[in-house]
Sequence to fold (264 residues):
Amino acid sequence: MVLRGLLVAEPLQRARIAAERAVRNPSGISCERPNNTLVPLRWGDELVNLILAGHVRIGRAAGARDLRWISGYVSVKDPHSPPLWWHQDWWAWDHPVTFQQDPPQIAVLCYLSDTTAETGALRILPGSHAASVPLHCKLPEAHSDESTGLDLDNAAMTDQPEQVTLALRAGDAVVTDYRLLHGTHANAGEYRRDCVLLSFTPHWSELPADIRGHLISHPALPKDHEPRPATALGALLPSFDGPRRDLPLNRNAPPIFATSQPAL
Ligand SMILES: O=C(O)CCC(=O)C(=O)O
Fold:
């Protein structure tokens, strides 16, 4: 779902300046992917707070029953960079929660400049979070060597017949299920394209304990010794008293699947 004008006017301008600062001086180790860099953000960062100010709209769009923020990045597409390959962001495909209809995790992607099919707009495959599509069988294993040197005519890089391009205005955002197949068009423009990507769980208290025990250790979240703000934004930080877990990661969707289980 698209959220028009999640950032406008002064907050949008502040977000651009904060993104520039984060890219120039990252607070952690950036994740370099082919044709895209993810610069990590932490709780308390201005960029995170600017987006969290729109939490009511985000929660409504996601049908959230207990919205909590988990992580944040600036997603950078350099000028003259080829497409970002088709992928999805869910990390626990072996876990039964994956096959429930409710999204275990969502992404909010807020673009800081206008985007088009020529300047790195997002492209998505509607429905691909809920059931497999033919492209699932053609994608290389996530983060494998095979996924790093893809030819531009590989299916993981090319336009798909069922795709929807989300050409957005600066400050618009899109809310997606973490399981949704998405990627970006090439950025053929002269300017860097920045997107603020925050992830949330829409139903935190209903998630299985082992998933919460894993997510609660995300480096973007406050450590135990860091005081949490007693504000509405502080209430968006997850808390969990159970055992911390380090669940095995599986970022590969099965070639055939359907999320047939009823919602939690
Ligand atoms: O930068 C974008 O537009 C998309 C980033 C993305 O797909 C991701 O980080 O999962």
In short: DSSP finds five helices and eleven strands in the chain. The radius of gyration is 18 Å.
